[in-house]
Amino acid sequence: MSHREKSDTSSAISEAIRAKRERKVGIAEDIATLEASLLADIEAFDLDAAERQARREESTSSGAGMSDASLVFPEIVPASVPRQPSVKPVVVAEAPALPSLKLDSGSLLGQLRHQADLRQRELNSAVAERTSANEAIDLALKHLFFYLHDFVQQLNIVKPAIPRDYRLLDPYVVNQLAWQEGFADYRTQSQAAGALVELVTFSYRLIGAGLPIVQRDGPAVERFRAMLFDYGLPFTCKEFKNERSYVERAEFQIRSEISVSARWRADFGKGLLILETRNLERLGSAVYTVRPAAIDHALLESFGRLVLGQPNQFRELANRQ
Fold first, then answer.
1. DSSP string, 221-288
2. At what angle do helices 108-158 and 297-307 cross, to 10 degrees?
3. Nearest-angstrom CA–CA distance, 297 and 302
4. Mind giving me the DSSP string for 97-139?
5. What is residue 86's three-state secondary structure?
6. Which residue in 174, 155, 194, 149 sits closest to 300, CA to CA?
7. Is the Cβ–Cβ distance between 294 and 275 less than 8 Å?
8. Is 296 helix (H, G, I), strand (E, B) or coil?
9. Is 221:239 a contact under the CB 8 Å cutoff?
């Protein structure tokens, strides 16, 4: 290395050392300035004034402020609107029936013990009856789900024709139907409520022959549209309006696709099963009431035949007492 190069290297090293020392001095001066500023703020801080401000804010947000229910604030209404007196509705709660004491001149404590024993037996009997009824509903719904689950799996493979006519309106009928896809599911109560089965759902979709275009005029357009929505029928609508944008007539292209559902719902309060159907035997909804004891193999077989459009005795079996 030449003498000139050594000189340049030494100069660079000296410059770096000097810059580092100056930077440290600058940082130390900044820290000293910040410390002096903090000490000045601490000495100037008024602790009493801060406590008074905190008490004022606390009283504003506490129960003595806006959230205090005992304080009544005036209602602000426009001057042109007469003030109406506020009247609170009186709710009268029905008092539960209290057991009456039947006492004679004998031992008071002995009579109370006897009546308490009778009352406890009544309560235990009522609980046992409710438990037995609920378990009967749970067992019936489980039997129902196992049957429908197996039933729908076979139909999803076979995809049979369903010989049923769904009459929309004369002369329009949805028919020549075939099974497309079905599904069965169930729902239980929470663990805290006993985890009993409370609902079994059964749904499927049918596809039929195409329908011709249905034309409706004037007010009948909206009525027919609402009916299609209620039945769950998919459709498209082409409207024809006059110069005032009023719909004079419309043409409906309806797809021959029927969605059918049957919901078996538990009514634990009445000890019954409620069957709610949609588009099962006809377009629209229907409701059946079935006792849990009526859910046997004969009824399930009849329900299956009903779904397939075959002769059945479902109504007779469902109404058995």
1. HHHHHHHHHHHT--EEEEEEE-TTS-EEEEEEEE--EEEEEEEEEEETTTTEEEEEEESSSSSSEEEE
2. 40
3. 9
4. PPPPP---SS-HHHHHHHHHHHHHHHHHHHHHHHHHHHHHHHH
5. coil
6. 149
7. no
8. coil
9. yes
In angstroms, the CA 288 to CA 276 distance is 7
Among the listed residues 318, 292, 301, the one whose alpha carbon sits nearest the alpha carbon of residue 197: 292
Residue in the block written with tokens 């001095």: 25
pTM above 0.90, yes or no: no
> Cis omega (within 30 of 0) on the bond before 171?
yes
What is the per-residue pLDDT for 37? 73
pLDDT tens by residue, 110-142: 777 777 777 777 666 655 556 788 889 999 999
**What is the biggest distance separating any 2 CA atoms in the chain, rounded to whole angstroms?**
133
User: Which tokens sit at 10?
Assistant: 């030494």
DSSP state of 312: -
Confidence of residue 223 (pLDDT cuts 50, 70, 90): very high
Which residue reads 């749904």 in tokens?
203
CB 115 within 8 A of CB 101: yes
* 20 confidence band (pLDDT: 50, 70, 90): low
d(CA 84, CA 10): 96
Give the list of residues 6+ apart from residue 137 with CB closer than 8 angstroms, or none. 196, 197, 266, 268, 271, 272, 273, 292
Q: How far apart are CA 68 and CA 166, in angstroms?
A: 64
In terms of Cβ atoms closer than 10 Å to its own Cβ (0-12, 13-18, 19+), residue 294 is: middle
Higher pLDDT, 152 or 80: 152
